[in-house]
Design brief:
The protein is of the alpha+beta class. The protein has one domain. It is built from 2 helices and 6 strands; from the N terminus they run αββββββα.
Amino acid sequence: MATGVGMLLVVCISVCAAFNLDTSFPLLKMGERGSLFGFSVALHQDLKTESYLLLVGAPREKAEPNVPANHTGGVYTCPISANPSDCRRMKLIDPSESHVSLDMWLGVSVASQGRPGGRVLVSLCSDWLIIFLLVRS
């Protein structure tokens, strides 16, 4: 009886400890040093190009040109490919907006709605959002 319970326990632990990480063929994407590129990642399906993309957050990324801040954070779209440097930054900040802030951690989390062609959610650091809401009210 004890042997049967022990075998059942070993089987349950081995099944529960499983995860899906492909170490044989990793997909590597590179970002700027210090930008925290890869802090958040989501898989998204683009219906226009009929392809899958990785949405990659870099919350300490330098600001885009003409934006009145040094570090705003950023979000990148990366095709599923072997090229480590084919990611493109999404244009999410309007340089004419007055509420752009230093260290707003844009891209601290990214999410895809999940269904084909669904929406993409990009969030900011909650501390910055609270300050933004106080200034706006």
